[in-house]
Amino acid sequence: MIIGQEHTGICVSNLDRSIAFYRDVMGFTMIKREEPKATRARKLGVPGSVIQIAVFEYGKGYQLELIQYLEPPNPNTYGEPVNSLGQVHISFKVDDIEKEIERMSKLGVEFVGGNDCEVNAEGPLKGWKWVYFKDPDGTNLELIEGDLERD
To answer: What confidence tens digit (pLDDT) does each residue in 31-44 have?
Structure first.
């Protein structure tokens, strides 16, 4: 039985650049950075891989793991569109979405479709506000404001 989510991992092309983004723009706290390791290739399913990771904490105990493959070279470039098979997005809860959009825009974040958020007009998510943006490697991210309490 699945009892929760441990962390979310994102493959990045430049760990230092991504650390700066998630620390300085997103406001996350780095709790660990590992030196490059070549011991996980079989378990990762990437022969000859050498990786380095950084782990961040944010919110109420959530963790984000950034993984840079030093070997082999990355097979693709900047992120795929959100409708590509296998694509995911990570949604981050905020208290004041307009304030976050303004703050992040000043730090150079470009929001998909402009700096205004979408507001759900009906249904169980009526009144929720959301906006998409991308990290430096094109990972799809979302800010969301609304009544997000869970049982």
So the answer is: 999 999 888 888 88
Q: Rounded to two decimals, what is the model's pTM?
A: 0.88
The verdict on domain 89-145 having CATH code 3.10.180.10 is yes
The domain locations on the chain are 8-71, 89-145
Protein fold of 8-71: 2,3-Dihydroxybiphenyl 1,2-Dioxygenase; domain 1 (3.10.180)
Ordered DSSP codes for 114-148: -S--EE--SSTTTT-EEEEEE-TT--EEEEEES--
Secondary structure tally for the chain: helices H, strands E: 3, 8
Pairing of strands 8-12, 129-134: unpaired
Neighbour-count burial of 132, counting CB atoms closer than 10 A to its CB (0-12 exposed, 13-18 middle, 19+ buried):
middle
Residue with the larger pLDDT of the pair 89 and 77: 89
CB count within 10 Å of CB 45 equals: 8
List pLDDT tens digits, range 9-60.
Answer: 999 999 999 999 999 999 999 999 999 988 888 888 888 999 999 999 999 8
